Amino acid sequence: MKHFLTPLLFAASAAVVLAASAPSISEIPLKDIDGKDTTLKAYQGKVLLIVNVASRCGLTKQYTQLQALHEKYKDQGFTVLGFPCNDFGAQEPGTNDEIKTFCSTKYSVSFPMFDKLHVKGSEQHPLYSALTGKEGAFPGDVKWNFGKFLIGKDGKPLQRFEPRTTPDDAAVVAAIEKALAAK
Fold first, then answer.
1. Is the pTM of this model over 0.90?
2. Whose CA is closest to 61, among 103, 32, 92?
3. Superfamily designation of domain 24-181
4. What is the signed CA dihedral for 77, 165, 162, 179, rounded to 10 degrees?
5. In the 8-state DSSP scheme, what is residue 73?
6. Which residues pair with 83 in a beta bridge?
7. Contact of 11 with 44, CB cutoff 8 Å
8. pLDDT in tens, the chain (183 residues)
9. Alpha-carbon distances, residue 1 vs 7, 8, 32, 33 (angstroms)
10. CA of 60: how far to CAs of 19, 102, 113, 138, 166, in Å?
11. Which of helix, strand or coil describes residue 63?
12. What residues are labeled active site?
């Protein structure tokens, strides 16, 4: 029995060490919509809603609800973060400048937007690997544009909402309010 437990204890210890050494999502290198290097460190201590967005999608109207959420809760320590993605039906073909102009003029988006990235496949961005990869917080590919991930004040993923779940859905609002109330 002793010989059987030793490998299990070693494997468990190794898993704890690996988890502890894994970079926080706040340290994953990103680029903002203007192409400047950044990370999510600037948002530490805030509740975040990470969303893969697209300008030519049937769900694009969710920008209105995302902006409303951002406005409603931004003074309480919440922000929406938009990540343009062209992985689904080529529905985000524009350049960063075109995306930025579209979002600001059509939907008055004031929440932070980032460089276009891949949320699935062989070119999946490390942020989305951390969220949806095999070892991610919520394993399984993002299904379409406007997939949402709620991140707590401690930088840990709390909940995943599928694309058709609108930003103003009662479950999303309740999860945001609960995360904001957490110490």
1. no
2. 103
3. Glutaredoxin (3.40.30.10)
4. 20
5. H
6. 52
7. no
8. 545 444 443 333 333 333 333 447 999 999 999 999 999 999 999 999 999 999 999 999 999 999 999 999 999 999 999 999 999 999 999 999 999 999 999 999 999 999 999 999 999 999 999 999 999 999 999 999 999 999 999 999 999 999 999 999 999 999 999 999 998
9. 11, 11, 54, 57
10. 36, 11, 15, 23, 11
11. helix
12. 57
CA angle 47, 58, 39 (to 5 degrees): 30
| Per-residue tokens: 95 | 């350049």
Contacts of 97 (CB under 8 A, 6+ apart): none
Residue 176 amino acid letter: I
Asked if residues 149 and 157 have their Cβ atoms less than 8 Å apart, the reply is: yes
Contacts for 28 with CB less than 8 Å, ≥ 6 apart: 39, 40, 126, 127, 130
| Rg of the chain taking only CA atoms, in angstroms | 18
* Residue boundaries of the structural domains of the chain: 24-181
What is 76-125 written as a DSSP string? GTEEEEEEE--TTTT---S-HHHHHHHHHHHH---S-BB----SSSTT--
